[in-house]
Amino acid sequence: MSFVLKVWETQISSYRLRSTEMGNQDLDQRGRWGSKAVFVFAAAGSAIGLGNIWRFPLMVGLNGGAIFVFVYILAVVMIGFTVMLAEFTVGRHTAKNPVGAYDAIKPRSLWKLAGYLGVFGCACFLSFYGVVAGWAFGYFYKTLGGTFKGEITWLASDAIFTHFAARPLEIILCLFVIIGLTTFVISRGVKAGIERWTKFLMPMLFGIIILLAIRAVSLPGAGTGLSFYLKPDFTKLNTTVVFFAVGQAFFSLSIGIGTMITYASYLSKRDNLVSSAGWVCFFDSLIALLAGIIVFPTLFATPGLTPDKFEPSTGLMFQVLPIIISKIPGGYVFGILFFFLLLVAALTSTISLLEVPVAYFVDERNWSRKKAALLVGFFCFLLGVPSGLSHGGVGIFTKWNFMKHMDLVFGNIVLALGGLIISLFVGYVWKIKNALKEISFGNTIFSLKSLWVFNVKFLAPVVIIVILIFILTLSG
Ligand code: TRP
Question: By C-alpha distance, which of 464, 165, 458 is closest to 314?
């Protein structure tokens, strides 16, 4: 861990040095990242969040275990990385929010609609994501208050979550805190707001996750969980698994709705887009895979829960964590630290989500940052309320499964659609040679060039079209 930190530190200082040597000629009014390392941190901060820790294990549990993990890794490498690099390229080339970016490359065309889809998609995504971040906040103060002291059984943990998620006022208050904090950070601007958060706390989260994973695999009976998680059963492979794996890759990597376009728009020409995308994909997947190593061994080794009764609920991670934390010496302090860091990870993601619509209103509509942050933040809060109340809080939203549908539409379908559009846009409209020229700034040797070109032009579009058709015929 300290080695990784050292490398990052050195990178940060060497980039600082270079930027002073080169003068500050590209610092403009929009603001810029301090260095490539800071950008990678911020982009990884956006990517690493509840998607890795809460949603990934949930998806694994719902979609056949290890087979999902297998398809997921393929999806990250072949499609996720491809789309992320496409977004980085468009973002840095245009230095604009998604709407402005599509418009700058193909003026006054319908492609701009994809930008609007991103702006709108981010706000809707934030609404239900904020609810889960609110749960993390709730668990933070519950741990602080000593709710999870002592040995926790599966039944107790399950009851605590179910009870908590069904309390309307508490859930809405938690959502309000999350959206409020996010709005506050965003209204203060890119550099002051985001950089400060990510640098130190993410590596700490990484450390604590490793410790929990080690504890989980050393539980007696962890083996069943590990084989469920890591031994793929290829008879379970089907289109649903592929659909959710690709969707999860988009969700976890923060791609498909313009977040990475917006983040890369604050990047300078000397930075290497390919390695940045590579690092973000690597760290993001690492954390997700480790989260699974915490959840499944703990789950299968917990008395009262036999694998044949195993059926993950939305709160899977929240139900499992208190159990494993209670098995760590010093669990009380450990738990507080864990939920605090989870909260920070969630906040760096909510910040990146709010940044997209705010950048749009600031760039394209000349709103002040404060006004944009406040109004969009308020909209997200209101839209989040029904999601928050759909876990027993209010009958009708629970019956409609409101949050599950928001997640399906904005956490899967819209992301995949956005990924399809940006691939086609870069591959055929803007033209690959222009994209490659942009990539060549800051990176003279792009060894995976032909693979990336193939993936942008053919593989990503074909796979996404197939799964979208599949899902539309399913729901139709
Ligand atoms: N990737 C984040 C996570 O895994 C969530 C997120 C933030 C996101 N910004 C995004 C997802 C943009 C899709 C698009 O928790």
Answer: 165
Q: What mean pLDDT value characterizes the chain?
A: 89
Beta strand residue intervals within 181-247, DSSP E: none
Q: What residue's CA is closest to ligand 1, atom 9? A: 254
Give CATH for domain 34-475: 1.10.4160
Pocket test residue of 289, 353, 414 for ligand 1, highest count of atoms within 8 A of CB: 353
**Ligand 1 atom 14, closest CA:** 254
Q: Does residue 182 line the site of ligand 1, with CB under 6 A?
A: no
Atom of ligand 1 nearest to the CA of 346: 15
Pick the closest to residue 179 from 391, 403, 353, 397 (CA basis): 353
Going 368 to 370 to 373 to 375, the CA torsion angle's sign is negative
Q: Is the CB of 47 under 6 A from ligand 1?
A: yes
What value does the mean pLDDT take over residues 402-425? 96
Cα–Cα distance between 283 and 288 in angstroms, integer?
Answer: 9
- Ligand 1 centroid distance, CA of 249 (Å): 10
Measure the CA–CA gap between 297 and 307, rounded to whole angstroms.
11
Residue 215 · residue 409 · CB < 8 Å: no
Strand, coil or helix: 315: coil
Q: Is the CB of 257 under 6 A from ligand 1?
A: yes
Provide the residue ranges of all domains of the chain, joining segments of one domain with +.
34-475
Ligand 1 centre distance from Cα of residue 46 (Å): 6
Does the pLDDT value for residue 42 go beyond 90? Answer: no
Q: How far is the CA of 252 from the centre of ligand 1 (A)?
A: 6
For 258-297, write each residue's pLDDT tens digit. 999 998 998 888 889 999 999 999 999 999 999 999 999 9
Mind listing the pLDDT tens digit for each residue in 332-341?
998 999 999 9
Can you count the helices (H) and strands (E) in the chain? Answer: 25, 0
Q: What is the pLDDT of residues 332-374, one digit of tens each?
A: 998 999 999 999 899 989 998 999 999 999 989 999 999 999 9
